[in-house]
Amino acid sequence: MQRQGGASLSGWLIGLIILVFLLSVAIKFVPHYLDFNAIKWAMDELKTDPGSHGGGKRETLARIGNKLRINDVEAVTERDFMFKRATGGYELSVEYEAREHLFGNLDAVLTFSHQVEIAVQ
Asked: 110, 80, 101, 104: which is closest to 92 by C-alpha?
């Protein structure tokens, strides 16, 4: 008599629990990564946007603030961006953290950072 192989009920339940956990984590984390991609896009657009090269700090912040409002990004504001002088222009950077509650007393902290160099002409 051959013995049947396959997953038992407990094996299926453990697999289902792991799948549900991973899906719940993905549902909580994906919006933060979508916001970060929108922030990166807005900053990278400033590098190629010819109108941003002649403006100063205030105009650059206004442009990036408009781009963030269009994309409904609430993770950062114009005040979170930092300027630093660089050769031939300036460096625009942003660093921020997003905290997400998982369960019980377990939280996840996501850290994001991006910088671009903008040439002044």
From this structure: 80
